[in-house]
Specification:
single chain; alpha+beta; Creatine Amidinohydrolase, Chain A, domain 1; Creatine Amidinohydrolase; 2 domains; globular
Length: about 425
């Protein structure tokens, strides 16, 4: 768990980034309608959660900065016995004052009054530029004298690049649960009939071991379905001799895991082993490259070269590697990036470039995925027949340390012999 002291330190750090005579406002997420009068499970807005650890809707966080000093206020929804009867207990103003280290706590209904009061004689307003129109309209109603508007989200998302020890511990916990889920899927694959049955096994484990939810829609893609990168239908029948690409991870206390394993229904065929071995070798090589100062673009270029070289050797691509890379022929079979930031969001909202457009180098405390893949459609007549319909991705979650890379998901099996021991 992340303690209130750490959230307070984040708020203090954020306040230092604000210009004098400014106000910053962060809002909780809205409840979203699923259909008619039913709602999706509530999930807090990520930046708001990062700054507060507060999981209720109808709440806001306000920073009011004068020349040097900053006051920080939390606004929470009032307690209402009748509403709580239907929708659950609320923390309320008094309890919030006891828990959160802020200058004061107000009821959320006071927001218009507080905006009117705090925006008086201020020069700048910070808010999330992705905020929905109704809230932007509310802010600007009381910001008529404001001459500069700034994106608060960009400041917070830069902070989110470097994970604290407490954040890393939560990611590790999410990965421990995800490990159990993937290993269960490996054991169950040959005994089940449909992709959705395997999805159910994964998500059962997520819930059993305390994960609040899956971190994203689980992908269970057998056979040629694996060649659709965001395949989430998960309705097809499992067939002997096919592979199953499983991209699934849980979210534990708002921190994500993101793991892909490609497993056989029973055993790998010779052709499948050849493609899988290439992807696995590339993944291992790229993970070794991860260390402070390295650019993600360097990882991408190296992965593309290694995959291209391997595909030439297997007869999937034909020609000189240098020329194939220049023409981007390899991207037909490896169309995506080598990885992404990961944290509160599975694709963490953290910058890849500075304000000046320069790439952000890897630094100690960053967490990213490494996920090379090869995807060959079953109708691709330019590829040897034995490789058609094979889609393989292998993905791990990597912590950048002072000395290099630490594979946080190392315990999740990915060697061919290990997986076959589970599946057969």
């Amino acid at each position: 768990m992340i303690k209130e002291k750490e959230y307070k330190e984040r708020r203090t750090q954020f306040a230092k980034k604000l210009k004098p005579y400014s106000v910053a406002v962060l809002f909780s997420a809205e409840v979203k309608t699923r259909s008619n009068d039913t709602e999706y499970p509530y999930r807090q807005e990520s930046n708001f959660y990062y700054m507060t650890g507060f999981t209720e809707d109808k709440s806001a966080l306000m920073f009011v900065k004068e020349a040097k000093k900053t006051k920080i206020y939390l606004l929470v929804h009032k307690k209402d016995a009748n509403e709580e009867l239907w929708n659950g207990k609320r923390l309320g103003q008094q309890q919030a004052k006891e828990i959160f280290i802020v200058d004061d706590v107000f009821e959320y209904s006071e927001l218009p009054l507080k905006l009117k009061e705090f925006l008086e004689a201020k020069q700048r307003l910070y808010y999330d530029f992705k905020l929905d129109y109704s809230k932007v309209k509310l802010l600007k109603r009381y910001a008529k004298k404001i001459d500069t508007f700034k994106n608060a989200a960009s400041l917070i998302e830069k902070m989110r690049l470097i994970k604290s020890d407490a954040e890393i511990a939560l990611i590790k916990k999410a990965l421990d649960i995800t490990k159990k889920a993937h290993h269960r899927a490996m054991k169950k694959a040959s005994k089940l009939h449909y992709e959705y049955e395997l999805q159910a096994e994964l998500e059962y484990v997520f819930k059993k071991y305390g994960a609040q939810s899956d971190a994203y829609s689980s992908i269970v893609a057998s056979g040629n379905n694996a060649n659709t990168l965001h395949y989430i239908d998960n309705r097809a029948r499992l067939t002997k001799d096919e592979l199953i690409l499983i991209d699934a991870g849980c979210e534990y206390n708002y921190y994500a895991s993101d793991i892909t394993r490609t497993i056989p229904v029973t055993k790998f065929t010779k052709a499948q082993k050849e493609i899988y071995g290439l992807v696995l070798d590339v993944e291992k090589e790229i993970i070794k490259m991860v260390k402070p100062g390295v650019m993600r673009s360097s990882l991408q270029k190296r992965a593309e070269r290694l995959l291209c070289e391997g595909m030439v050797k297997l007869g999937i691509l034909h020609g000189k590697v240098k020329k194939l890379l220049k023409k981007e022929c390899h991207k037909k079979y490896f169309p995506h990036g080598i990885g992404h930031w990961m944290g509160i969001d599975v694709h963490d909202q953290a910058p890849y470039k500075t304000k000046k457009g320069k790439e952000v180098p890897l630094k100690k405390g960053m967490v990213l995925t490494i996920e090379p893949g090869i995807y060959i459609d079953e109708k691709d007549s330019k590829v040897p027949k034995k490789y058609r319909g094979i889609g393989i991705r292998i993905e791990d979650n990597i912590l950048v340390t002072e000395k290099g890379a630490k594979n946080l998901s190392k315990a999740i099996k990915k060697e061919i012999e290990e997986m076959e021991a589970y599946t057969s």
